[in-house]
Amino acid sequence: MPVIWITNTLWGKASKAIQRLASLRPPDESDYRHKDVRTTMSTARTAADTTPRSIQELFDLTGETAVVTGAGSGLGKAIAEILALAGAQVGLIDVNQDRLATVGAGIEANGGKTFSLTADVSDSTSIASAIEDIKDHFGGLNIVFANAGISRGPGFQEAEGTLTGTRREDWNAVVDVNLNGVFNTLGVASGAIADGGRIIVTASTAGLRADPMVGYAYVATKAAVLNIVRQAALELAPRNIRINAIAPGPFRTNIAGEGALDAPELNSMWAQTIPLGRMAHPEELKGLALLLASNASSFMTGGAYAIDGGALALSHAH
Fold first, then answer.
1. The CATH classification of domain 52-317, taken from the options 3.20.20.450, 3.40.50.2300, 3.40.50.720, 3.40.47.10
2. What is the mean predicted confidence (pLDDT) over 282-301?
């Protein structure tokens, strides 16, 4: 069969298809009025019209207001710093006023704007009041990091971390902060945040797999918040509010207590579980935090993003 005949035939069919597409009626505004998340593309359907024109614009948070819980140290401190560096005005929340003052002073020394309040995420009234006060202070709310978290008790390799040995008070304390605290924060944030806002939850790789290095309450709560994020993504999508989770692996923070991770033998133990051979510094979370807080993640919601030096990949290989 002559090649020219095939080419002409294919072109003729393509031309007819293009003509049919051109004659189709563009979608009417009423097509988007249904609230079912399966059929509603929400205000996200206009996102392509506001595509940033430069890398700076892609990550720019100028004029936006962010809230970070657990902002007094560790990952929360790093998150607050990068948000301020990108131009956001940042509301800092923690149970420790002295740490908040130190973090706030550091950010403002570099030209950032902060407003600090002490609050307990496990107390729904306390966290609600703090978030609303920050919103009133800055005149809006666009970004919320539900970052506050704790860990208590060892993993099951020690007697105090087994099913029978785990202390009930440790279990309840971790559940109150890591699960109830996240839910309390999201409950307030979802009502206070502007359409098109971003919510980020600090989970853990311990919520994605078993982790003998930490206690039962920790793995249970971190797994639970990941499914809350997925569920909330469906609820909030019609308002173009994106919610995602960061799942850190071993980072050098004080979550296990001041100086708990300074022991050389503990660092060596963690390093054996990480292909990159070391624990991470909170500074190394800043890139992912900014991605999820900015327009660079405009089509990302309901996801869990590991930052773990390859630890999950290694556990899958084993």
1. 3.40.50.720
2. 97
